[in-house]
From TrEMBL:
The chain crosses the membrane at residues 12-32. GO terms for biological process: response to stress. Pfam families: AAA, AAA_assoc, AAA_lid_At3g28540. The keyword Translocase does not apply. Residues 251-396 form the AAA+ ATPase domain. It comes from Buddleja alternifolia. One of its GO terms (molecular function) is ATP hydrolysis activity. Its cofactor is Mg(2+). The lineage of its organism: Eukaryota, Viridiplantae, Streptophyta, Embryophyta, Tracheophyta. PANTHER family: BCS1 AAA-TYPE ATPASE. Keywords: ATP-binding, Hydrolase, Magnesium, Membrane, Nucleotide-binding, Transmembrane, Transmembrane helix. It catalyses: ATP + H2O = ADP + phosphate + H(+). This is AAA+ ATPase domain-containing protein. The keyword Translocase does not apply.
């Protein structure tokens, strides 16, 4: 852990003292701000600070940005945690914005101090940096970019000596946890897709963009009990790190989403990603040539992510079963799946996902989708392979009410509601079809009349087709 201690003559009850005199200093500061130039103002304020500083020992922890060649997690956590504590009374700040970010990042300037309190302990953080003699190269862990660094950055954390154990055992873990929560809140979910790259010898690489899919559990029309079941399952999964470790299982969860087109399988995946703030890796199997490519791509996926294989029954063409083509331990070894002119085995995919891949990372979710569960290879359906099978079905009246409130803002029953609900109950209509009708106009009456017409004519078409069949059979 890149933490070092130093002891120096400094205030022990400095923070209590600061608290009581801070109002006084702020008053003087306000007066000085208006009357005195900045440099003179700082000089006067320093004198006042030093005058009031009780002269006792305190402990100081040094938290450097780098720990040898790697980054220091505590430094990053402290930076995130303290940035969230920036108040308007801080004089000097640095701002920056990475081109991928949507918001401006605010950081501290040299020697800037931040006061914090934790369970009755008063603490003082100070941001410092020193010029290095030599510029060093480091790799940014988030973007893989090479960064040239010419300064040594660190935080000094100062507190009363008697609280040292509580700071190390309790406060530092608290800062780590808080920063993780702040990071999660701010995180922009990204969608990674496979792309061919000339720079990498035409092999496939992950390319990513921000996931702009607005689907959330609030906008998803589905059975309420089923929806709650999924949310509870996700919550249980993310908080069970210790459980998975204790029982010796990889921390991963698999979902199979099945149902007709337009019932919300892809929308549910986006809702899950937005809910958990997990990135999505969309594994388009037709872009993969060999088992080895597949493994490489899977190993390049990050933790806390959702690996998605959509339409598992049709993205891979099932040619004749070739028996000797591959080997595998779950009864699908002989079945070869061909992706265009190349081939890889389903067993290769499943064994790798269950074995090495999932044990290499944490908090992995894998989702397969299909329109037709009956067409799936039994290897995908065997117990233990997918933890939860989720049936996305045709629209029900409760789902219709949710769509009406999301698309048209109607919360109270409308005169057309009961006719529409009766029709929906008596036929197979997908949420996508109804959503499309509701989107046609802003006018509530026109939209609901349109939907009513659509449902009635759909029902008549069905009835006519059924009658024609009867006549043909006669
Ligand atoms: N359950 C739903 N709740 C809310 N909107 C839905 C739902 N299902 C579908 N929609 C709407 O229909 C559109 C298409 O749905 P989606 O792509 O999620 O269906 P799908 O089941 O993945 O279909 P496919 O099997 O063709 O991939 C969505 O963008 C959304 O607007
Ligand atoms: Mg889909």
């Amino acid at each position: 852990m890149a933490v070092s201690f130093s002891s120096m003559p400094a205030p022990s009850s400095v923070f209590a003292a600061y608290a009581s005199i801070s109002a006084f200093i702020m008053l003087i500061q306000t007066m000085l701000n208006q009357l005195v130039p900045r440099q003179l103002r700082n000089y006067v304020l320093n004198i006042i600070h030093n005058f009031f500083k009780p002269k006792q020992n305190c402990s100081t922890i040094i938290i450097e940005e780098r720990d040898g060649l790697g980054f220091n997690e505590i430094y990053n956590a402290a930076e995130i945690y303290l940035c969230a504590k920036i108040r308007p009374n801080i004089d000097r700040l640095k701002i920056s914005k990475h081109f991928k970010d949507t918001a401006v990042t605010v950081k501290f300037a040299q020697s800037e101090k931040i006061f914090d309190s934790y369970e009755g302990i008063e603490l003082q953080w100070k941001f410092m940096f020193e010029e290095r003699k030599k510029t060093s190269k480091i790799i940014d862990e988030d973007s893989d970019d090479i960064i040239l660094q010419s300064e040594k950055r660190y935080f000094e954390l100062c507190f009363d000596k008697k609280d040292k154990d509580r700071i190390l055992d309790s406060y530092i873990p608290f800062v780590l946890e808080s920063s993780k929560n702040i990071k999660d809140e701010k995180k922009i979910v990204r969608l990674h897709t496979l792309a061919c790259s000339a720079n990498y010898g035409s092999s496939v690489v992950w390319d990513s963009i921000n996931l702009e899919h607005p689907s959330t559990f609030d906008t998803l029309a589905m059975d309420l009990g089923q929806k709650k079941g999924i949310i509870d399952d996700l919550d249980r999964f993310v908080r069970r790190k210790e459980f998975y470790r204790k029982v010796g299982r990889a921390w991963k969860r698999g979902y199979l989403l099945y149902g007709p087109p337009g019932t919300g399988k892809s929308s549910l995946i986006a809702a899950m990603a937005n809910y958990l703030k997990f990135d999505i890796y969309d594994l388009e199997l037709t872009n993969v040539k060999r088992d080895s490519d597949l493994r490489k791509m899977l190993l390049r996926t990050a933790n806390r992510s959702i690996l998605v294989i959509e339409d598992i029954d049709c993205t891979v063409e099932i040619p004749e079963r070739t028996g000797a083509a591959t080997s595998g331990g779950d009864g699908v070894g002989g079945q070869c799946y061909r992706s265009r002119d190349q081939q890889f085995s389903l067993s290769g995919l499943l064994n790798f996902i269950d074995g090495l891949w999932s044990s290499c990372g944490d908090e992995r979710i894998i989702i397969f989708t299909t329109n037709n569960r009956d067409k799936l290879d039994p290897a995908l359906l065997r117990p233990g392979r997918m933890d939860m099978h989720i049936h996305m079905s045709y629209l029900k009246p409760v789902g219709f009410k949710l769509l009406a409130s999301t698309y048209l803002g109607i919360h109270d029953p409308h005169p057309n509601f009961s006719k529409i609900e009766d029709l929906i109950e008596s036929m197979k209509v997908t949420p996508a079809e109804v959503a499309e009708e509701l989107m046609k106009t802003d006018d509530v009456d026109i939209a609901l009349d349109g939907l009513l017409n659509f449902l009635e004519s759909k029902k008549n078409v069905k009835r006519d087709a059924w009658r024609d069949n009867e006549i043909l059979e006669c």
